[in-house]
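Input (structure):
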């Protein structure tokens, strides 16, 4: 498979981390199995059904797919070949771009074309007018800019502070510190954060810690697994492995031996 990563335009840099294109080669098998990992971010996929169809369990996924936060790993199957565009958003994108309560899409997805058609923006039809990935991305960028203008939502500064604090600390900042700074009760912080991000502050912090440990594993920045465990404030190596299994679907050792990441946090099972 051929993978290309693309930076977003300046108008969307505050909303999109990066974009990617994944295309199958002639030697790829007809049916492929993939595992996603919890990463703390929503995203968008466009996979034309004429090339291949994505399934989650036995459920056929729409061609133009908007998905929310994942609280655990997910198994996906592809029948056919990849000709996929992906957009990897920042954690707050569902509210800041689309104006939706982020909890509505947690561990779920929706057909983005249906949302676009409500505003007379026929996204799927436009995307299918060209096979050029760059042109398709430009269509998606136009739609996202349209949504942002339509939404016209003010930045939620308290939740942005909470979000930034968790990300920069790799999930290790005490939530009580955030509550005290924002003068919010534990319940109020949880309610507001769930609406903004889609999951609780505690779970988001745990995913941040998992992602920090995964990055260390990817980069071979350790001598033994206990180095990763203690470096990321896990109680011990067993605690680290249990958490890794929860969010990745397999142990750190199995990840090294059985997974091939074709896109960050999307591994082909071999």
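Output (sequence):
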């Amino acid at each position: 498979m051929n993978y290309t990563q693309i930076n977003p335009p300046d108008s969307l840099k505050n909303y999109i981390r990066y974009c990617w294109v994944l295309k199958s080669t002639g030697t790829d098998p007809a049916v492929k199995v993939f595992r996603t990992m919890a990463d703390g971010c929503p995203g968008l996929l466009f996979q034309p059904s004429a090339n291949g169809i994505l399934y989650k369990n036995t459920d056929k996924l729409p061609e133009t797919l908007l998905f929310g936060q994942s609280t655990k790993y997910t198994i996906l199957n592809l029948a056919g070949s990849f000709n996929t565009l992906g957009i990897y958003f920042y954690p707050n994108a569902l509210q800041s771009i689309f104006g939706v309560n982020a909890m509505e899409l947690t561990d779920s997805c929706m057909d983005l074309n249906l949302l676009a058609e409500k505003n007379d923006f026929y996204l799927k039809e436009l995307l299918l007018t060209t096979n050029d990935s760059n042109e398709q991305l430009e269509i998606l960028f136009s739609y996202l800019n349209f949504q942002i203008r339509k939404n016209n939502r003010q930045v939620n500064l308290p939740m942005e502070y909470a979000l930034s604090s968790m990300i920069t600390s790799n999930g290790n900042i005490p939530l009580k510190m955030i509550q005290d700074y924002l003068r919010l009760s534990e319940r109020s912080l949880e309610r507001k954060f769930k609406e903004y991000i889609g999951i609780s502050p505690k779970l988001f912090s745990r995913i941040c810690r998992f992602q920090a440990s995964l990055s260390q594993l990817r980069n071979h920045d350790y001598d033994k697994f206990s180095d990763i465990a203690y470096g990321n404030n896990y109680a011990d190596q067993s605690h680290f492995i249990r958490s890794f299994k929860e969010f990745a679907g397999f142990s750190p050792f199995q990840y090294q031996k059985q997974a091939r990441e074709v896109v960050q946090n999307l591994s082909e099972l071999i």
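Notes: The chain has a mean pLDDT of 93. Residues 36 and 266 are 5 Å apart (CA to CA).
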